[in-house]
Amino acid sequence: MRVQAREFRSQQPVEIVVEDGKIAAINEIESAETLPIVAPGLFDLQINGYGGTWFSDEKLTVEKCLEALRAHYQYGITHLFPTLITNSYEALENGFAIIRQACEKEAWANRMVLGCHLEGPYIATEDGPRGAHPLDQVRACDWDEVQRLQAASGNRIRLLTLAPESPGAPEFITNCVNNGIAISIGHTAANTEQIGAAVAAGATLSTHLGNGAHGTLRRHPNYIWDQLGEPKLTASIISDGHHLPASVVRSFYFAKGKDGIVLTCDASGLAGCEPGVHDYHGAKFEVLESGKVVIAGQSQFLAGSGVQTDVCIATMVEMTGCSLADAWDMATINPARISHVECAKLAVGKPADFVLFEHDSANAKLHVLQTIADGEVVFGSF
């Protein structure tokens, strides 16, 4: 396979030669044609499902899991962490076991799934910080439970979101970190001391900072400032245009710098669904015409996102003025570093996982033309 495009950092026209699923050469070329941009496949560490399928659903099947995973190729996503949110132990165990079976069944799925993200159930009980997570399934930190879930996943849990005020959090965090599970602070109402203790124990990330929070906070101190001002914490943000105002995104970006931000779409299981009201676990959620996913009956309280990482990149560039290359790093290199995995890279000798696209900067959109994974065209055509 030979692909001609403009390299996403330099904008230099190049020809990428693919052999045996790997990048064999990247050669600069002269071209008078208008070529698309080429960049490494995206990696999102927080995706809850797609098309009505939730990875944390006790009714998840291998077929539904594979269908939900494959759908992400159309958005330039070649790697992700299926994310399971607060639920009963039985539902979580089933979700992780099904993901393991899906990865064992299909080699492409095993390559796409770099790990799993457990978001909860060790989070705040308060309305606001708890977000859309079910109150009756929130519980104290339980290392034994995580070990059993890890076994069900085939050792795929690589990231866990918790609230530092959850009983037993510091010791629990240390156990996780010592066993290869990165810890993120999220869905929390923790005070300054509790956040400091979590960082001292090994927490390194903030989950969708600025969301999963009270509608009104004291001006200072508060748990957003405490995390934003902590240099040991990288901040993941949902830059989809709905979750955070542009001024907040800019403030987070300028505070943390390009290396301290991780972009995630936090796509819910309703991403890709038609607008309307949908039932899940006895609760009603609504996909609005704008693409927002909310708790049904109002338009303010969100329940995950309805768009994917490509939208977050384009919106990040528009909101902050950062370069396309820097935004791309926030959705590849940065999340891979924080979760200790290897994502796609546009380099000789690396797996051929890349995406061809056009960047419509005037309208803050990316148009994915083609996605290549492991040297195979998995979306689009030449």
From TrEMBL:
GO terms assigned for molecular function: metal ion binding; N-acetylglucosamine-6-phosphate deacetylase activity
GO biological process terms, semicolon-separated: N-acetylglucosamine catabolic process
Binding site for Zn(2+): E119, H187, H208
Broad EC category: hydrolase
InterPro entries: Amidohydro-rel (IPR006680), GlcNAc_6-P_deAcase (IPR003764), Metal-dep_hydrolase_composite (IPR011059), Metal_Hydrolase (IPR032466)
The enzyme's E.C. designation: 3.5.1.25
Cofactor: a divalent metal cation
Active site: D266 (proton donor/acceptor)
Keyword DNA-binding: no
Binding of substrate, residues: A132, N211, G212, R219, H243, L302, A303, G304
Cofactor binding remark: Binds 1 divalent metal cation per subunit.
Keywords (A to Z) from UniProt: Carbohydrate metabolism, Hydrolase, Metal-binding
Residue ranges occupied by any Amidohydrolase-related domain in the UniProt entry: 37-378
UniProt entry tagged with the keyword Thylakoid: no
Family in the record: Belongs to the metallo-dependent hydrolases superfamily. NagA family.
Stated name of the protein: N-acetylglucosamine-6-phosphate deacetylase
Gene: nagA_2
